[in-house]
Design brief:
Largest sheet: 8 strands, parallel, barrel
Strand content: 5-15%
Helix content: 40-55%
Radius of gyration: 22 Å
Strand order of the largest sheet: 1-2-3-4-7-8-9-10
Number of domains: 2
CATH superfamily of the largest domain: Enolase-like C-terminal domain
Number of helices: 17
Oligomer: single chain
CATH topology of the largest domain: TIM Barrel
Bound molecules: zinc ion
CATH architecture of the largest domain: Alpha-Beta Barrel
């Protein structure tokens, strides 16, 4: 049976050029005693925007690991797939993020809800999760409400899981269930019953991605109180621990943090909590690699700077269209975006500093960074030119990608000094 290691990183590489730089960060971390399983993830939306195939990700992952002589496990994740989009991912992926967000809130048939309730009404009253000091007082109404909200999604997850299993065979792939792309976070109590549903549906889930409180905007830091996040995260970990024993879920079931790129304010908390309880984590990053490519090109100056400046200028004229698909995960203050006239006079150093995610740098501009984050499709429109530049300025670009994953993500999460 394929199992995911204790620590794993979801690495997004939209344009398929940074696999080696990303892997270098993983290898560097193992030299420091932290073994991380790399997982290359790409969603259907990203494939559609860029015009790539899931098999391209497989080819890249196989090539870069072979080239580096990497002997550890690695996976290719069909990120955020559902029943309609999973098919073309099945052959080349061995990790599936089953996204049930769009099914949450739809009610399952009454008989199914009744059947589920008959198995869980024993938790009515004071639910005590080992390790959590206060017990949760839960009424029958609350449990019924949770069943009405989530059971249909769990049933759909099973349908998707079965579709994959039929082709790949049981145990030949990793299953994740994600519920992060919804407006409301799940509470620890909801998570408890959701895990019960997944167990009832016989889904051998190895990672679960809930929606947490606070905002997880793309490419920028966490918005919210990191202490509140830490409390919620710790409670969720204990719920998972208890659910594994109580419901017979896979022993290595662990938390997956989505939109995990650049959430620097919460990494030290996540790191210290997982070390305290000796737990694993899957941290999914995606668009941050594209941003690092832009930074690397900006820093290279000349034609490379001119190219990314042009992308920025173009994005200023299409803010609404570019942001629409990401409305829930970006917050751009348009009045803070630097004008064309201003940026036209910027040096390469200034441009790179504006979008490099170093929050105490006075040139850093999170609004500009977020806009460029969602502007990757503009580079996809002139792919030949973009790839030519990525290859020509590879040294600068790949060191930017490496630096970000290693120094700003891995070191912060694992407390590497
Ligand atoms: Zn997600």
């Amino acid at each position: 049976m394929k199992t995911l290691g204790k620590y794993s990183f979801g690495l997004g590489d939209r344009f398929g050029h940074q696999g080696s730089a990303q892997l270098k960060a993983i290898i560097e971390s193992s030299k420091k005693g932290i073994d991380i399983t790399p997982v290359w993830n790409k969603s259907n939306r990203e494939h559609m925007t860029i015009g790539t195939q899931p098999s391209d990700v497989r080819i890249e992952a196989d090539q870069v690991t072979k080239k580096a002589g990497f002997t550890g496990d690695y996976f290719v994740d069909a990120d955020h797939i559902n029943f309609d989009t999973v098919d073309r991912f099945i052959e080349s992926s061995d990790f599936f993020t089953i996204d049930v967000a769009s099914y949450i809130g739809k009610k399952a048939e009454d008989t199914m809800i009744k059947e589920f309730l008959s198995g869980v009404l024993k938790y009515e009253g004071d639910l005590k999760i080992p390790g959590i000091i206060k017990s949760f007082s839960i009424s029958k109404e609350q449990i019924t409400h949770i069943a009405e909200k989530y059971l249909f999604a769990a049933i759909k997850a099973r349908e998707i899981y079965r579709k994959i299993e039929k082709i790949k065979g049981r145990g030949n792939f990793i299953t994740e269930v994600s519920m992060d792309e919804v407006p409301e976070p799940q509470t620890p109590v909801e998570l408890f019953f959701i895990l019960r549903m997944l167990a009832t549906e016989y889904i051998p889930v190895q990672t679960i991605a809930p929606k947490f409180s606070g905002r997880f905007n793309k490419g920028v830091d966490y918005v919210g109180d990191p202490q509140d996040f830490a409390l919620e995260f710790e409670s969720d970990l204990k719920v998972i621990d208890f659910a594994v024993k109580e419901f017979g879920l896979p022993e290595n079931l662990k938390m997956s943090i989505h939109s995990g790129s650049d959430k620097f304010a919460i990494y030290p908390h996540i790191g210290s909590i997982i070390r305290k309880y000796d737990k694993g984590i899957h941290l999914k990053t995606a668009g941050t690699t594209w941003l690092e490519e832009v930074i690397g090109l900006a820093a290279s100056g000349g034609e490379a700077l001119a190219f990314v400046r042009e992308i920025y200028f173009e994005s200023l004229g299409q803010i609404e269209e570019l942001c629409a698909p990401y409305a829930d995960v970006i917050d751009i203050r348009i009045q803070h975006l630097p004008s064309k006239a201003l940026v036209a006079g910027w040096t390469s150093f200034k441009f790179a500093s504006a979008i490099r995610h170093i929050t105490n740098n006075q040139d850093y501009n999170p609004d500009m960074r977020q806009l460029l984050h969602v502007a990757y499709k503009l580079a996809a429109h002139r792919m030949d030119d973009y790839f030519r530049l990525l290859e020509k300025y590879e040294d600068q670009v790949s060191s930017s990608v490496y630096e970000n994953i290693y120094s700003r993500h891995i070191c912060r999460l694992f407390g590497i000094l």
